[in-house]
Specification:
Number of helices: 9
Strand content: 15-25%
Largest sheet: 7 strands, parallel
Radius of gyration: 22 Å
Distance between the termini: 51 Å
Number of strands: 13
Order of helices and strands: HEEHEEHEHEHEEEEEHHEHEH
Structural class: alpha/beta
Length: about 325
């Protein structure tokens, strides 16, 4: 009887130690509930994607001008403090922009968050917040066309389009061609089509179509397949949200933001003026091959090529 009581006391003691350990660990980590990411203690959030992509803080050159055509950006987020913005509301011109959907704020954070809790790829940038998607993430082609027209007038360097249409649109193709003729680099999401066709405008020849992969370099099951130019991280990505906090996001939209950030960083540190017609040659120096071209395009666009190749080599021997 006494032996059984001793065993029970020992069991309770072990359970108490385990519970105490769990509490201590959780108090020093990120608590993810649904899509919301809350930091218990002030600390940098560990983001697998930025660890592979890398970042660039060079401020010597003129800032890169990036137009983000999306649902808007919560420009009051602490991660954007001190960042330069210009905005255009293509849906209701003249109205101030609010990001009710949360998509655009996440894209902006991937590119340019200042590093309080999440780190963007570069800070030597001017973001052009172009609202073309409504509170439900829906967009009309005429508003996208207006947004691209405005971006051309602003002489931006890159246009990021983290969404797409399932079919070709004559007016969209026309304005895309106009932007490319002006030397503007355009990145676009391959689309979350479950391995089916590529969305438009990513489908167009001179637009850089971006697919997404996960932490293990496996193709995102949601990602479109076919006319893919490059790939980037796009699964379980932590970025800024429209509530002023942080959330996890997945899809080719966010892979596109990483690709845009890498291209901007390359432009930022380059002595030459690359544009839509010459950038692919330069990007070949920042690509790591991952697999089939229709899945990953030329490969993973990264500023940390040597590190990624080292990781992949180690995986081959595991």
């Amino acid at each position: 009887m006494i032996k059984n009581i001793k065993n029970l006391l020992l069991l309770f003691l072990v359970l108490f130690i385990i519970i105490l350990t769990i509490i201590l660990v959780r108090n020093n980590s990120i608590d993810i509930v649904g899509n919301e990411v809350t930091t218990i203690k002030k600390q940098k959030i560990d983001n697998w994607a930025i660890n592979l992509v890398g970042s660039n803080s060079t401020m010597d050159a003129d800032p890169i001008k990036i137009a983000i055509l999306d649902s808007g950006i919560n420009k009051t987020h602490k991660e954007f403090e001190g960042l330069s913005f210009k905005e255009y509301n293509a849906i209701t011109p003249g109205d101030n922009i609010k990001d009710e959907f949360g998509h655009g704020t996440a894209v902006a954070g991937i590119i340019a968050a200042k590093g309080i809790e999440v780190t963007g790829i570069l800070d030597n940038v001017i973001l052009y917040d172009v609202k073309v998607l409504d509170e439900k993430g829906r967009g009309k082609v005429e508003d996208v066309v207006k947004g691209i027209e405005w971006s051309i007038e602003q002489e931006v360097d890159i246009i990021n389009i983290s969404f797409g249409f399932s079919s070709d649109k004559v007016e969209l193709k026309s304005v895309i061609n106009k932007a490319i003729e002006q030397g503007i680099i355009i990145t676009a999401a391959a689309g979350n089509t479950l391995g089916l066709t590529i969305d438009y405008p990513a489908q167009y020849n001179d637009v850089l179509s971006i697919s997404s992969f996960d932490e293990n370099f496996k193709l995102d099951p949601l990602s479109g397949v076919g006319k893919v130019d490059y790939s980037a991280p796009g699964v379980e990505i932590i970025s800024t949200d429209n509530k002023g906090s942080y959330s996890t996001f997945s899809g080719t939209s966010f892979a596109t933001a990483y690709a845009t950030g890498v291209i901007a960083a390359i432009l930022n540190e380059s002595d030459s003026n690359y544009n839509a017609n010459t950038i692919k040659e330069k990007l070949s120096n920042y690509v790591v091959k991952l697999g089939e071209k229709e899945h990953f395009g030329e490969g993973f666009l990264t500023l940390r090529k040597e590190k990624v190749e080292e990781i992949l080599n180690e995986k081959e021997f595991d």
